[in-house]
Design a protein that fits this description.
The chain has 739 residues and is an alpha+beta fold. The chain has 29 helices and 19 strands. Strands 5-4-19-18-17 form a five-stranded antiparallel sheet, with helices on both faces. It has a four-stranded mixed sheet with strand order 2-1-3-15. It has a two-stranded parallel sheet with strand order 6-7. The relative contact order is 0.10. Among the domains are: 195 residues, Orthogonal Bundle (Penicillin binding protein transpeptidase fold); 317 residues, 3-Layer(aba) Sandwich (Beta-lactamase).
């Protein structure tokens, strides 16, 4: 029998002094009881324990041992990663192989089922041997005493000084340990004590508890341990680091295995023949390293790290896990939670495949893609052509091929990317909400002089003068359907002027667009009414924000806060009340249906009123095989970025091609078709196997009369108000944001 975790090493003077002092204290007791019958000794032990179960520290009655937390994909089976300070997971005794239970008793405490928590006879033998010296020091601690010591030295509710005192080589500490062990033995069954012990013992190589040890050494759950494997693990607890066959001495580990097998024969747990057969088995290790954190996700899936990091950031905002960020972080790393995330492995695999198909891992440009479930806000996939890794990059490459920056969700140093004409959705929604109809008509010119003062190239007589990218195809009389389908800049700038730019900005914010860049946030707060170019997508956003905004329309006006989990279960099996969809209505359902009807035009489908006559992403219809779908393309100034957002009633997906480190590196118009194709194929994977669901047509009141008279543009007098929309290029504004 040995003290858990003690090393087989020469005794220090302090250790010798401790044993001599303790021997003196207990000598009279030992001499008095040595000749007593066993049953009388047990009774004396129990009666002499100077303590009660009620007086025990709370951690001994209800252990607060740290355990690792598991993150799974939405199937509840695919492991993403784990978080831990201590690699431990508790399992019930019924899930531990019987031979493992027998092996630990034989190795550490043969009289476990006979004594009352503190084995005075065993302690006396150990004390005599230690005082005489001349060999390996013996501890005399029972399994119950070892359990007490390990709980107290790892209890996260105790101070560092209190935890350190649990292993002090003092007579007082040893007597307290005996008292606590006796009190536990009177109140808990032997199986309960054995279960607790097996779940806290250290087995070396970073594995605490039998579940972690079984996985660490043999890659299997403890219920499947063989006799030879059980004997090996039981032998480790005397000196876990020295005997570990992974990091220590394999010969010593095998020698300890033989000792345990012989002890099992002595306790009649196994036969001599069974012991001999187990001794003959080779050391068959299957060591597995438990991943720890987002940079240690499952092999071959480092793309999952971006989603993992997003989940961790979400976790740190949840009061259910602690009052402070530090407490929530500690809860994740030691609370033993089982987290079923919203990540869909199939959708994620397709998104990652498509992102890397457009740009390889070594390309400085990137295609971050996000997928969101309408009606719940659950994030289904987050992909980008980067490795989520802290590994060094080649010189001059800040974020490729390795990065841990949130390129998909934004935050930290990532403001986002310009999404171009995808922001026209917010103008259309604001117009519909103000009472205008889908048939609102305007004779869109090639260039539109606006009321916003501007100088330099691109201005018209001192006014900001946006132009259509393809005049031959875009100019002329347009309504919302074909204005959106053909992405007519002058139509939507005109429409935004009629509605009010501040209403458009507010609409975007209602649908979850977050202004992370300081200049964008200031413009939105202080000068939204004059942000004329907002409808053309000059504000920075992220694929996740954009996908969720369009998901709000897909859900007929119900906005749901993005959430990365399906369920969170505590170590005790209790469901934590977090992660449920947090949704609210931000749009009238008919307004959302009307916007969706116009959004059928860009993707090559037809509106409920037959008003689509061309689109910028008509290939989407073929990829979705005619399944109801809607969406919008976006090209920022000088094609610095290319964007596509698509949605069905079941999923919304957004992808933005950009250079996260250099906005001067325009991705070019040629990549637009690849972005469209990539996003559409992610949508196809997401809806595969799901019943086809049609969009609900808007009311005729919101459709309006397509024969409505044309409204001709007028050139207003130049405003003298110096607080006007910023006429600089998108590139210059991006550079200014960064000083």
């Amino acid at each position: 029998m040995a003290i858990l975790g003690s090393m087989a090493a020469p005794r220090s003077p302090l250790s010798r002094l401790f044993t001599v002092l303790l021997a003196g204290v207990l000598a009279g007791l030992v001499l008095a009881v040595a000749a007593l019958p066993g049953n009388l000794l047990l009774g004396l032990t129990a009666r002499s324990a100077l303590g009660s179960y009620a007086a025990l520290p709370a951690s001994l009655k209800t252990p607060a041992t740290p355990q690792r937390s598991y993150l799974y994909a939405n199937d509840g089976k695919t492991l993403i990663t784990t978080f831990y300070d201590v690699n431990r997971t508790d399992v019930p005794l019924s899930e531990i192989a019987p031979v493992m239970r027998q092996a630990i008793v034989a190795a550490e405490d043969r009289r476990f089922y006979d004594h009352g928590g503190a084995d005075l006879r065993g302690l006396a033998r150990a004390l005599v041997a230690n005082v005489k010296g001349g060999g390996t020091e013996q501890g005399g601690s029972t399994l119950t005493m070892q359990y007490v010591r390990n709980v107290l030295k790892t209890d996260p509710t105790r101070t560092a000084e209190e935890r350190a005192a649990a292993t002090d080589p003092t007579v007082g500490r040893k007597i307290q340990e005996i008292r606590y062990a006796s009190a536990l033995d009177k109140s808990l069954g032997k199986d309960e004590i054995l279960d607790r012990y097996l779940n806290i013992a250290y087995f070396g190589s970073g594995a605490y508890g039998i579940a972690a040890a079984s996985q660490r050494y043999f890659g299997k759950p403890p219920a499947q341990l063989t006799l030879a494997e059980s004997a090996l693990l039981a032998g480790l607890v005397q000196s876990p680091d020295a005997y570990s066959p992974i990091s220590g001495d394999k010969d010593e580990a095998l020698a300890r295995r033989s000792y345990v097998l012989d002890s099992m024969v002595a306790t009649n747990a196994i036969t001599v023949a069974q012991a001999a057969q187990a001794k003959a088995e080779p050391l068959a290790l299957r060591p597995t390293a438990q991943p720890n954190g987002c940079t240690a996700v499952s092999q071959g899936h480092d793309d999952w790290g971006f989603f993992c990091d997003y989940l961790r950031q979400w976790w740190l905002t949840q009061p259910a896990f602690g009052a402070t960020v530090a407490e929530r972080e500690q809860a994740l790393r030691s609370g033993g939670y089982t987290v079923v995330t919203s990540l869909d492995p199939k959708i994620q695999a397709t998104a990652q495949q498509q992102a890397t198909k457009v740009y390889g891992y070594d390309n400085k440009r990137a295609l971050p893609i996000a997928a969101v479930q309408p009606g719940t806000g659950r994030v289904l996939a987050m992909a980008v052509n980067r490795h989520y890794s802290l590994a060094d990059n080649p010189g001059g490459q800040a974020n490729h091929p390795n990065t841990v920056n949130p390129l998909i969700s934004g935050g930290a140093s990532v403001d986002g990317y310009q999404a171009g004409s995808t922001f026209k959705l917010f103008t259309m929604l604001a117009a519909l909400e103000s009472g205008r109809t889908l048939s609102t008509g305007f004779d869109a010119p090639a260039k539109l002089p606006t009321r916003y003062a501007a100088e330099g190239p691109g201005s018209c007589d001192g006014h900001w003068c946006p132009a259509n990218a393809n005049p031959d195809w875009m100019d002329g009389y347009r309504m919302m359907w074909d204005g959106f389908g053909r992405s007519v800049n002058t139509y939507f700038v005109w429409l935004a002027e009629q509605v009010g730019q501040d209403k458009v900005v507010q609409m975007a914010q209602r649908l979850g667009i977050t202004f992370r860049a300081d200049s964008d946030a200031n413009f939105a707060k202080n000068n939204a009414a004059n942000w004329g170019s907002f409808t053309l997508g000059v504000a920075a956003t992220t694929p996740l924000d954009l996908a969720n905004a369009y998901a709000t329309v897909a859900a007929e006006g119900t906005y749901c806060t993005p959430v990365p989990v399906v369920s969170v279960t505590g170590a005790d099996g209790t469901k934590v009340p977090v992660g449920q969809p947090s949704c609210k209505r931000v749009l009238d359902a008919d307004v959302a249906r009307a916007a969706t009807d116009a959004a059928r035009c860009p993707v090559g489908q037809q509106s409920a009123f037959g008003q689509c006559n061309g689109g910028t992403a008509t290939g989407v219809n073929d990829i979705l095989d005619g399944r109801p779908v809607a969406g919008k393309t976006g090209s920022s100034e000088q094609n610095s970025t290319e964007t596509f957002v698509g949605f069905t009633p079941q999923v919304a997906v957004a992808g933005i091609a950009a250079n996260p480190d250099d906005p001067a590196d325009s991705v070019g118009s040629a990549v637009q078709t690849k972005v469209i194709d990539a996003v559409a194929r992610v949508i196809a994977t997401a809806v595969k196997g799901q019943p086809e669901k049609a969009f609900v047509a808007p009311s005729r009141e919101l459709a309006g009369d397509a024969r409505r008279p044309v409204e001709r543009p007028t050139v207003p007098e130049r405003r003298q108000d110096p607080t006007t929309d910023d006429p600089r290029s998108a590139l210059q504004r991006w550079l200014d944001r960064r000083g």
